[in-house]
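Render this sequence as a predicted structure.
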Amino acid sequence: LGYSMNKAEKTMVVITGYKDTGKTTAIEGIVKELSARGYEIGTMKHCHHGFDLDRPGKDSWRHRRAGPAGTALVGPYGFAMIGQNPPVQDPRSIAAWLFPEADLVIAEGFHWLNLPRIEIVERGGQTRSGPPEGELLARLPHRFGLTDIRHICDLLELRLLEAKEECP
């Protein structure tokens, strides 16, 4: 598979927070709102415990066990790609590889990346902060609502989506 740098690598934001603070709910709301505004959005989730889409004995499991670079499951409602590792390892590059036409890629987790981030505040007021050189765009309260999501989308449009038009 070929790889080249593209706009998805330049337009990525991470959503960070501790377990059960609403990261996935925030991403759902942001994706729905930005999609309604006409943007193409990709999402990624860091699975620190790993995952497995295969079941022993199924055809896709047998394909993978044979040792290909990757196996694609393609059906009428979507596709899934199963493989060892993508051709690039940096999450920003993986986002560019997976979503070459996306206006924005939103990543859940990846709190260590030096990327613009939105932190979700825990009930006790704590957040999972990113690296000090990373740009904190906003903090969402633990009990956020639709108005908060719309404000975040306004901010993303202003800071990341409209700014991308200026990039060569």
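Summary. Residues 1-9 have pLDDT under 50 and may be disordered. The first helix runs from residue 7 to 10.
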